[in-house]
């Protein structure tokens, strides 16, 4: 196995991981920022107020984009299975 093949596999895997995590985390981060601005504007210092909207937004993102996330992971897995002969020989 050449180092270039390993670097290509690692780059592809890292790209998929960053994409999947970003799709799940960024909507919750945006809602958390909005709630934090609201809390700062109204001087509400309740720590649990930002938890529920972030949880709901994360679950909503998983529900809406779950099919795409699974499809992306399956395509990557199939690509890795197809690369086995290249990596071994």
TrEMBL record:
Q: Where in the cell is it found?
A: Cell membrane; Bacterial flagellum basal body
Q: How does it sit in the membrane?
A: Multi-pass membrane protein
In this record, what's one Pfam family? Bac_export_3
* Gene field: fliQ
**TM spans, by residue?**
12-39, 51-70
Q: What family does this belong to?
A: Belongs to the FliQ/MopD/SpaQ family.
PANTHER family the record matches: FLAGELLAR BIOSYNTHETIC PROTEIN FLIQ
InterPro entries from the entry? Bac_export_3 (IPR002191), FliQ (IPR006305)
Q: Name one GO biological process term.
A: protein secretion
Q: One GO term of the cellular component aspect?
A: bacterial-type flagellum basal body
Keywords from the UniProt entry? Bacterial flagellum, Cell membrane, Cell projection, Cilium, Flagellum, Membrane, Transmembrane, Transmembrane helix
**Name of the protein in question:** Flagellar biosynthetic protein FliQ
| Its job | Role in flagellar biosynthesis.
């Amino acid at each position: 196995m050449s180092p270039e093949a390993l670097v290509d596999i690692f780059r592809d895997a890292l790209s998929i991981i960053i994409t999947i995590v970003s799709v799940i985390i960024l909507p919750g981060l945006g809602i958390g920022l909005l709630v934090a601005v609201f809390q700062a504007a109204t001087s509400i210092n309740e720590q649990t107020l930002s938890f529920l909207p972030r949880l709901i937004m994360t679950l909503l993102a998983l529900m809406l984009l779950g099919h795409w996330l699974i499809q992306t992971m399956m395509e990557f897995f199939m690509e890795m299975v197809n690369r086995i002969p290249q990596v071994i020989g």
